[in-house]
Amino acid sequence: MIRPLVLLLSASTCLSAGSESLSIRETDTHIEIFSGNQSVLKYHKAVMPPPEGQPKYFERSGFIHPIKAPSGGTVTGIHPADHIHHMGLWHAWVEAYHDGRNLDFWNLKEETATIRYTKTLKLVEKANQVGFTVRQNHVALANDGRPEEIILAEDFSIVVRVEGESYLIDHTTVQTNVSDHPLELPVYRYGGPLAYRAPASWDKTNSNYLTSEGKDRNNGHETRARWCAMYGPTEYGDATITILGHPSNHDAPQRMRIWPETSNNGAIFFNYVSIQEFAWSLKPGVSSEMRYRILVDDGKPDVNRIEERWKTYSGE
C-alpha cells in the first residue's frame, strides 16, 4: 500500500536525469528509488524475517537491498550462509559499552541490541536527485531486569543522482546519543557507520577490491583509504561499487575491514571502521555525522574517473 500524498512531500515524483528519470516511491514496507522503470535501490522499513530455519533474532529493519548497477545487475547480497546478519548495505556498532553493560548492535545473535526503522522524516525531490531521510533508533533490548532503551536516535539519509552512466548515492548518518550515559566504543576490527556485502556469487575467482592506495583483498585490511572499489560479475555483466569516505568523517581517511581470499572463499565484505585504531565515545546529547558517496558503475573500476569524482566530493 502506497502511503497517502498528504503524509509525505510526495509518494512518487519523476525528475529528468539524463536519458532516464528518477522517481521515489514509499509503501508501508519500503522506500524504493527508480531510474526509469529500473530499481536503483530499496530501503527496508518493515522487519525482514531471517531465512527459513534460522533463529528469529536475525530479523531486522533499516537496511538497503538490493542495489542495482545501471545495467540492472544486482551488486548487494543478503543473509549469506556464512554471516546471516549481513544485510546488503547497513551499519551498526559492535562490542559497545553503555551504563555497565555490553551492547552489540551488529551481532544480532547476542540479543543485547538492535536497530529499527521508526519513521520517515522526508522524501527529497530536486532536479536530478531523489532520496529520503528516515529515523532509525539504536535500541538496547530488555535485559537483566532493565527495560528497552533508545541509545542513539539516527537520521539516516540517502540521495541518488545519475551522472553519465553512473549512479551516485550519497549516504549520510547523523547519530545523537539520547541516553544519559556515553556509548563507549573500544578499538575493534569492524563495526560502525557503513558496511557492505556483495552478492554470494562474488568470490576469489571472479572479484576483487581496489583502494585509493592501490591495495586489494590480500593487503587492504586495516589500511586507510579515501575510497575502495569492489567489483565482480552480475546477471548483466561486470559491475563495480565504489565507496568514498568524506574527509570530514571522524578518523578520516578511515581504516577498513577487507576480507582476504582465505575468508569464506574470498567473499566480498567491506566496512569503513572509525574505531579500528582508536577508541571513541559518543557522549550524551552529542551528534556525530558520517558521510559517504557510493558510485555504482557497469564494468571494472576506472581509477581516473573515480579520482575525478573523489576530488569533486571532497572539495579538493
Explain what you see.
This protein has 316 residues and is mainly beta. It has one domain (5-314): Distorted Sandwich (Beta-galactosidase, Chain A, domain 5), CATH 2.70.98. 4% of the residues lie in helices and 47% in strands. The chain contains 1 helix and 21 strands. An 8-stranded antiparallel beta sheet has the order 9-10-11-12-21-17-16-15, with helices on one face. The longest helix has 12 residues, at 303-314. The radius of gyration is 19 Å and the shape is globular. 43% of the residues are buried. Mean pLDDT is 94; it is low at 1-19.
Overview features:
about 325 residues, mainly beta, Beta-galactosidase, Chain A, domain 5, 8-stranded antiparallel β-sheet, 5-stranded antiparallel β-sheet, 21 strands, disordered N terminus
CATH top level is Mainly Beta
Main beta sheet strand tally, sense and closure? 8 strands, antiparallel
Mean pLDDT: 94
The class by helix and strand makeup works out as mainly beta
- N to C succession of SSEs: EEEEEEEEEEEEEEEEEEEEEH
Alpha-carbon Rg, integer: 19 Å
Q: Strands of the largest sheet, in order across it?
A: 9-10-11-12-21-17-16-15
Q: Judging by the overall fold, what is the CATH architecture?
A: Distorted Sandwich
